[in-house]
Amino acid sequence: MMRKIFFGLLWIVCVPAMMAQNTAESYYMMRAKEAVQSDDYDTAIEYLSKELDVNPKNGYAHMWTAIACAHSDRFGWALQYAQSALRYLPKNAKAGRGQLNILLAELYLEAKDTTRTISYLEQVIKETPNEEYPYRKLARISEKRQDKEAMLRYARMAVNNIPTSTNMYVLLSDAQVANEQYSEALATCEKAFALPELTSKDRSKLLIQRASIHVANKQPNEALSDLMNSTRIDIWDVSEDVLSKLDDTIPSVLYDTLSAAYTKEPDKLFWKIYLYDYYRYHNEYSKAVEIGFAMLPQYNSAHLVHYIASILESYIGDVELSERMLVKQLSVDSTSANTYVRLQELYSETGRYKEAMKMAEKALSFDPNENDKSTAYKLRGRDYEIQHEYQKAIEDYMAGMIADPSDSEYWWFRIGRLYGKLNESEKQAWAFEQGRKAMQVKGKELPPESYVAMGDSAKAYEAAKTMIKKENSPEQHYNAACVYAQIGHPEEAVTELRKAMEYGFSHFYHIAWDMDLDSLRGLPEFEALVSEYKQRAEQAKQELRSKIDLELNY
Predict the structure, then answer these.
(1) How far from 66 is each of 14, 100, 330, 478, CA to CA, in Å?
(2) What pLDDT score does 17 carry?
(3) Taking the CB of residue 196, how many other CB atoms lie within 10 A of it?
(4) Which of 17, 19, 4 is nearest to 88 (CA)?
(5) What is the average pLDDT score of the chain?
(6) Which end of the chain has the smaller Cβ count within 10 Å, N or C?
(7) Cα 286 to Cα 88: distance, rounded to the nearest angstrom
(8) In the prediction, which pLDDT does 12 show?
(9) What is the pTM of this model?
(10) Which regions of the chain are under pLDDT 70?
(11) CATH classification of 1-128, choosing from 1.10.150.130, 1.25.40.10, 3.90.1150.10, 3.40.50.20?
């Protein structure tokens, strides 16, 4: 995420400033520019260092160096040079100084220093009050810190300083919804609708925003009306979030409305998109794939290809077609970290560990976002664990948590379990304690897997029972089966596994290698169950293939 911001800073702010410097002493600066245009940041930094040897107070050289360092993940150096640039840039270079404050804010945000992040973003507002970015960032930081009053304050400030921006009105209405001020949020949307020269995209965005307000205010039918109208204006503003919330409140009304619209206008892409998402929400995966393939000629995006491939692999059991789709997607974009991660997941699930490792290396080399980076490390860690390379598994699990700590409570217990296998009891106790603390911070009960890791079978059993009562999904029934298999309840494990399969779980390759189910292998009822559902899945796969257009070069 950071690199996108840095790239924007580079071209929006620094290039015009550099182009203005046509003096003889800017030779090194021009060479640095050429290197940056070729993504050769090491060479850029080398030329910039030479420029600073000649002119150590060249604020633009410091600024370029900061951005080049940020691009190449040298965040400590980027921080130093950005601060130097602020010191040496002319006072009247407000745009450059404002963008440098954004850069510093992002660097401190990366370092988890929220206080300094806020300070630099507020400085940006002082330097350039008509810049949208700092208001959005400050509002989201406040929301994350559950400081709803601060979120509202920054959003109001944004509308006051940028009164013609649709985005700032949307930000303000979000803040009002967070503070349960629904009438005020609707009034804010109405003011935005009255803005002069409103584009069709802006109108669509505002309709979706109003729909989300209606959802929050428990007015689902009004929300559905706005959602349908927004789609007719701009398909690219399709809102999965609003759709999923409507599906929770008025599923039959939603389906009837979408089906009627699709029947009336079968060539309209947006109805296909909505129905595709609807089928996914309701675990009707064959229908989702069928309509997904119908969409591909019109909407052949990486997002859609990944989703269809995931459904084919996970719920239809068509690993071959899933792989072909992802490989074809790489022929369209060979630098897609996300696609490499999806392939890594597929190879890992099917026991092709060497190929999975190669995909992990590829994914990590193409600057994945935090979620994909975390997934790549954790999947590779799991593959190491399966192959009994426990230390490597621990290292990758930790790297995954650093990239995305949102589910760290689960991974700490898994790491503790691996320390146990390495007979490192102190580190095991430390990891378990980290897991407990992570759960306490989130106010959650320990999951059954944590009790299994700590060897408390009685609590693991009760936690598994509670888990499946709370969420009657194929994944949770499968997780319960894994818990029961590990704590000596084979009959209940097989029962839960059957329920998982009845609800659509068909990760048969996953079942084949999952160490949590080792105690069930060899049991006639387990083998018969897997065989039965494999046959059903094969039949469903063949039926689906007869309905989709395989002439799409897959």
Answers:
(1) 11, 9, 33, 49
(2) 44
(3) 5
(4) 17
(5) 88
(6) N
(7) 62
(8) 42
(9) 0.67
(10) 1-25, 232-238
(11) 1.25.40.10
